[in-house]
Design brief:
The complex is a heterodimer of chains A (387) and B (300). Chain A is of the alpha/beta class. Helices cover 35% and strands 15% of the residues of chain A. Chain A has eleven helices and ten strands. In chain A, the strands form two sheets. Chain A has an eight-stranded mixed beta sheet, with helices on both faces. Chain A has a two-stranded antiparallel ribbon with strand order 1-2. The longest helix of chain A has 21 residues. Chain B is globular, with a radius of gyration of 19 Å. In chain B, a hairpin with a 4-residue loop joins strand 6 and strand 7. With 300 residues, chain B is α+β, with helices and mostly antiparallel strands. Classes of the chains: A alpha/beta (387), B alpha+beta (300). Chains A and B meet through strand 9 of A and helix 1, strand 5 and strand 11 of B. Chain A: Belongs to the peptidase M14 family.
């Protein structure tokens, strides 16, 4: 075992207590093989120690430099297929997601561009990946991570980004979609919140903007949209998790999307992804009045979750927001629908409460895979029913 | 690896209402959906925590069919889940609703809202289905002295899943240990739970069910979000005793609500929750890790 050059951080002391081992890159495959062959339960605490040290150094020096690496080898060992991406088996911090996006663009310059649609309250860039096979196409929007504690969603967003570049040109159904529509993917829709969940409070949901006259910070970005704003289904108290904010679109994280959607002018589908509850919902949340094309949206949802369930049997419920989960005013897809984006949906990903927000990392990829099937159904329908 | 050695005791299915204290649980006939055809049937509601029938009602009101995928039915099923866990949970037994099959609602003037819900459920440790469960959940009308819902629930499948080998082993390990167990952030941010912390997490889920049951109403949906910390305490009797600080997630308000609970358990008896204390609403709480208690005999 000496040749593996293992550096033991926490020695074995008792059969029930964990051992922490720092494994050099070259030995990774062997160590993993040994652990798996002996059915020794293990997990990765730090997937790239050097990156962590670099980040710390970078933060201390306040200069920006990220060593570019390949998205296939991102942070690690080897991947064989998309499904085995080690990086995507972890919940990774913001700087790694930013680096991932840059690498994806660098590797796929004819397909992917990174747009900056604005800045968060704490001046973090709000990035959207645009996947496009040609000019002047209608757009299909997907966002993840608008509520920062819903970590499986940002992780799924990363997986979707990689899936898109792999499937275009290889998967017939998806290639047909991207040949007709651009995909716009905002992976970290609330970067201030995401950073905060990593550094301070794992259960943080809102933005990080202070509220004048209150010691409580933040606005619920999914109650801040101009749809039923001010009505029941949101709080007027800055100390509450569903605080709507002082006015509609007061949060830059929301306003940036509003401005982008309006200036784009040709977005035909809009999906906002949350966790948890295992639901697929269409508007409205703020009112019981059904949307005009409810039968179509209801049937499309039915088909989408049937396809989602086909992979691992994961059961979703579906319906309008207000009947399926609760009344919510100022919500994203109520606004997008009222802008004329007919195919507006919101997902609540795994699970149904057992782990809740703290979904284990080993469920990231299965969740992303099954969700993708649901997304494909909606994207396909949108492409076939452009308006 | 958390090896599951679970055997189902086949015949006895579990009944939530014990008509006479001290008697063995009766064998029950699985409730059928045809109860809807018997509008004059007497219904016995069991007060949470007691074994005597507390309320007898005659059903005469019209019954409204509910969409099982909409939230009212699901919230009622969640309440029944909390009831099952409070009654039958252990560090190796944790029940979850899988899917709501059907539900009805009856508004009873002067009393409250009575839900009848049929749902499939599963025990999560052994990953074993308990088949269809049928529950009556009465949310009392606001303004009365009753705030907690009253629940009666029984399931088709065996709730008396035999996890006694693991329960005994866990019990002996913690009783015999010289250093009291402590834990923080279970699961951690990444959803990881150390194997030796898993029964403490499940016990937290079961103990939290007492609180979640009591706190539930038609406008809430509770889940255990995380165990902030747990400390084993010295106990005067043969029970294991723990001080827990748990984070509950309430879905409708999206709030994280902190509770401190004193929890006791031994394999023979069930879980008991003493001194549940809701912590003041803390908008941005960062909790310190658990430390071993200074005086082993003094709970916090």
């Amino acid at each position: 075992m000496d040749q593996l050059q293992l550096d033991i951080w926490k020695e074995p002391t008792h059969p029930t207590l964990p051992v922490d081992i720092h494994v050099p890159f070259e030995s990774l495959q062997s160590v993993k093989a040994f652990l798996e062959a002996n059915e020794i339960e293990h997990y990765i605490m730090i997937n790239d120690l050097q990156a962590l040290i670099d980040e710390e150094r970078h933060e201390m020096q306040s200069t920006r430099f990220i060593e570019p690496r390949n998205t296939d080898n991102f942070d690690y060992a080897q991947y064989h297929t998309l499904d085995e991406i080690e990086f995507n088996q972890m919940f990774v911090p913001l700087f790694q997601i930013n680096a991932f996006m840059d690498m994806l663009v660098a590797e796929n310059p004819n397909l992917v561009t990174k747009l900056r649609i604005g800045s968060s309250y704490e001046q973090r860039p709000l990035y959207v990946l645009k996947f496009s096979s040609g000019p002047n196409r209608p757009g299909f929007w997907i966002d993840t991570g608008i509520h920062s504690r819903e970590w499986v969603t940002q992780a799924a967003g990363i997986w979707f980004a990689k899936k898109i570049v792999i499937d275009y040109g290889r998967n017939q159904a998806f290639t047909a979609i991207l040949n007709k529509m651009d995909i716009l993917l905002e992976i970290v829709t609330n970067p201030d919140g995401y950073h905060y969940t990593h550094t301070t409070n794992r259960m943080w949901r809102k933005t990080r903007k202070p509220n004048p006259g209150s010691s409580c910070v933040g606005v619920d970005p999914n109650r801040n949209w101009d749809a039923g704003f001010g009505g029941p289904g949101a709080s007027s108290n800055p100390c509450m998790e569903t605080y709507r904010g002082p006015s509609a679109h007061s949060e830059s994280e929301v306003k940036s999307i509003v401005d982008y959607v309006k200036s784009h002018g040709n977005i035909k589908g809009f999906i906002s992804i949350h966790s948890y509850s295992q639901m697929l919902m269409y508007p409205y949340g703020y009112t019981k009045t059904p949307v005009p094309n409810q039968p179509e949206l209801h049937d499309l949802a039915r088909r989408a979750i049937a396809n989602l369930a086909s992979l691992y049997g994961t059961k979703y419920t579906y319906g309008s927001i207000i009947t399926t989960i609760y009344q919510a005013s100022g919500g994203t897809i109520d606004w997008t629908y009222d802008q004329g984006i007919k195919y507006s949906y919101t997902f609540e990903l795994r699970d149904t409460g057992r782990y809740g927000f703290l979904l284990p990392a080993n469920q990231i990829i299965p969740t992303a895979q099954e969700t993708w099937l649901g997304l494909m159904t909606i994207m396909q329908h949108t492409k076939d029913n452009l308006y | 690896m958390h090896r599951c050695v679970c055997a189902a005791l086949a015949v006895l299915s579990l009944v939530g209402a014990s008509p006479t204290p001290g008697s063995a649980p009766p064998r029950s006939v699985p409730w059928k959906a045809s109860r809807l055809d018997k509008p004059n049937e007497h219904v016995i509601f069991l007060q949470y925590g007691e074994t005597e029938p507390a309320l007898k009602l005659k059903e005469t009101m019209p019954v409204e069919e509910l969409n099982p995928t909409h939230y009212p039915a699901r919230r009622a099923a969640a309440v029944a889940q909390h009831f099952l866990n409070a009654r039958h949970g252990s560090p190796y037994k944790w029940f979850h609703v899988e899917q709501v099959q059907s539900a009805t609602l009856e508004e009873i003037a002067g009393v409250g809202a009575k839900y009848h819900v049929v749902f499939s459920a599963k025990e999560g440790v052994c990953n074993q289905s308990v088949g269809l469960c049928t529950a009556d959940v009465l949310f009392p009308e606001a303004g009365g002295d009753q705030t907690a819902p009253q629940v009666q629930c029984s399931c088709e499948g065996p709730l008396a899943i035999n996890a006694s080998a693991q329960e005994e082993a866990f019990y002996r390990r913690l009783r015999g240990s010289n250093s009291p167990v402590t834990g923080n952030n279970i699961p951690d941010s990444f959803g990881f739970i150390a194997p030796d912390m898993k029964p403490l997490w499940i016990l937290a889920g079961v103990a939290s069910s007492f609180v979640m049951l009591k706190e539930s109403n038609e406008n809430t949906l509770y889940n255990l979000a995380q165990v902030a910390n747990v400390t084993q305490l010295e106990s005067e009797d043969k029970q294991l005793k723990f001080q827990y600080h748990v984070l509950l997630h309430e879905m409708v308000s999206q709030e994280i609500i902190h509770w401190k609970l004193l929890v006791t358990w031994a394999p023979a008896g069930g879980v008991s929750v003493l001194h549940p204390e809701r912590q003041p609403h803390c908008h941005d709480c960062v909790l310190p890790p658990a430390t071993a208690p200074k005086e082993r005999s003094d709970p916090e």
